[in-house]
Amino acid sequence: xxxxxxxxxxxxxxxxxxxxxxxxxxxxxxxxxxxxxxxxxxxxxxxxxxxxxxxxxxxxxxxxxxxxxxxxxxxxxxxxxxxxxxxxxxxxxxxxxxxxxxxxxxxxxxxxxxxxxxxxxxxxxxxxxxxxxxxxxxxxxxxxxxxxxxxxxxxx
Length: 156
What we know:
The protein has helices at residues 14-27, 49-63, 82-95, 111-116, 130-148, and strands at residues 3-8, 33-38, 69-79, 99-103, 119-122. It has 156 residues and is an alpha/beta fold. A five-stranded parallel sheet has the order 2-1-4-3-5. The longest helix is centred in the last third of the chain and has 19 residues, at 130-148. The protein is globular.
């Protein structure tokens, strides 16, 4: 089983990127994991929000392996406590199917991406920058893996 985090645009804050890379390395000790970056659209400011979502959606769909389960990180997704997320992830890992998690662009996902998705997760009811969500998600993914292994990272 392989996990992938698909993101639109590079992480431009070097401090966030350092922290994200730290968690990416930690996750790699448990299972194969990679962060794939879809380049930001050129001339995005000249596009309407729906046009931008459509074009990003096409790039997202092309980047997802056909056999991977697609899970969107979306404000309308299901919120879970860390232990609940770990249990959910453990069940997915038992199934053995690759999972691609996606953080979309600033305006969300196209209808086509929503249709392809097999689930949605919300990390909070609050709004965070797309770059900040990368850090929050990689930390939560690492936390879930330590919970599944019974390690002492998570306290509850």
